[in-house]
Amino acid sequence: MARVAFIGLGNMGGGMAANLAKAGHDVRAFDLSPEALDRAKAAGCLPVASAAEAVDGAEAIITMLPAGKHVAQVYAEAVFGNAPPAAILIDCSTIDVTTARQVATDAQAKGLEAVDAPVSGGIAAANAGTLTFMVGGSQSAFELAQPFLEAMGKAVIHAGASGAGQAVKMCNNLILGATMIATCEGFALAEKLGLDAQTFYDIASKATAQSWSMTSYCPVPGVGPESPADRDYQGGFAAALMLKDLRLAMDAAEQAGATVPMGTRSRDLYEAFADAGHGNLDFSAIIKTFQSASVQGTS
Ligand code: NAD
Fold first, then answer.
1. Residue 216: which CATH number?
2. Nearest to residue 242, comparing CAs of 281, 288, 276, 212?
3. pLDDT, averaged across the chain
4. How confident is the model at residue 124 (pLDDT cuts 50, 70, 90)?
5. What is the count of structural domains for the chain?
6. What is the CATH number of the domain that holds 15?
7. Whose CA is nearest to atom 7 of ligand 1?
8. Same structural domain for residues 195 and 156?
9. Is 69 among the residues known to form the active site?
10. Would the pLDDT of 296 be above 60?
11. CA 195–ligand 1 middle distance (angstroms)
């Protein structure tokens, strides 16, 4: 078993580091939050005093941080300069493609192998070790990262060169955001047309409106398999995080010269929803926007 540095022990990283420790790895864990360090210790990791100390002597260096600026800073200040030459650098945070490519280029210039490996699956999947990893990097970097990612997930897929993991993640979440909004609109309109939600689901879920947003994560309470809607939209994937991912997708689209009208509108709707104070609710709670005429200004 290997020595692993794990930096960023928040909602996602906490469970992921715990699963690496459970798999027998020697996990040196660091976070700016003392509470997060205490939780990591209870989960079998060794808390250390700095990111540099975690990185020292590690075979794999995993980061699970909020955004690109945190990743760039931790890499510049603690990873480069302390990582052993044979270490594999694995960034699992959801960040912009440009920063992902830049840190990989910087790593390469220092003779280090690196991958971007963002995840699909929320906090429950992080705790259960059932995340899906989409990985960008060279074949050799992918093979070095694979065993560590397999200890934290159910699927580890090589998406292409550096940045490809982040590119898949944002295209996936652009589609997810738009299909969730369309599903919410459909259910809200069905209700206003006097249809029973369960009856509409029974038909639409077997017709061409079927999607993951409808049949795995239905935004209407009591309809379809259990979902955050059944828990008053608590837990799950926060609307604020969907907004973050849509903003990343819009930035990437602008740089690539892509036309993304649905993504743009989805970003705007999630922005309005978050600005109205609902950012902590699950992203399927955006159905409230369409159920309540006053929020949307339409009827
Ligand atoms: P979080 O805010 O709970 O955790 C981030 C952690 O990073 C915090 O504990 C914070 O103290 C720590 N941190 C920040 N700067 C640091 C630094 N310089 N050094 C050490 N630690 C530092 O966030 P999260 O929900 O765990 O998400 C992490 C990443 O995973 C994000 O990029 C997010 O978009 C992505 N993601 C989250 C989910 C989800 O459902 N929460 C799902 C998929 C992907």
1. 1.10.1040.10
2. 281
3. 95
4. confident
5. 2
6. 3.40.50.720
7. 8
8. no
9. no
10. no
11. 41
Q: Dump the DSSP string for 249-274.
A: HHHHHHHHT---HHHHHHHHHHHHHI
Span 170-179, pLDDT tens digits: 999 999 999 9
pLDDT at 293: 54
Q: Which of 141, 161, 181 is the last residue of a domain?
A: 161
Residue closest by Cα to atom 30 of ligand 1: 93
Task: Select from 145, 161, 177 the last residue of a domain.
Answer: 161
Please report, in angstroms and rounded to a whole number, the separation of the first and last CA atoms in the chain: 60
| Any domain includes 295 | no
Task: Read off the pLDDT of each residue in 90-100 and give the average, rounded to a whole number.
Answer: 96
Average pLDDT over residues 64-69: 95
Confidence (pLDDT) at 25: 98
Run of H or E including 35: helix 34-42
What pTM does this model have? 0.92
Based on the domain organization, do 173 and 155 belong to the same domain?
no
Residue range of the domain that includes 215: 167-290
- R_g over Cα of the chain: 20
Please report the atom of ligand 1 found closest to the CA of residue 93. 32
Same domain, 157 and 240: no
Atom of ligand 1 nearest to the CA of 237: 40
Nearest-atom index, ligand 1, CA of 36:
9
| Ligand 1 site, CB within 6 A | 7-13, 30-33, 36, 51, 64-66, 70, 73-74, 93-94, 119, 122-123, 237, 241, 244
Q: Residue 54: enclosing H or E segment and its boundaries?
A: helix 51-55
Catalytic-labelled residue, pool 22, 41, 169, 288 = 169
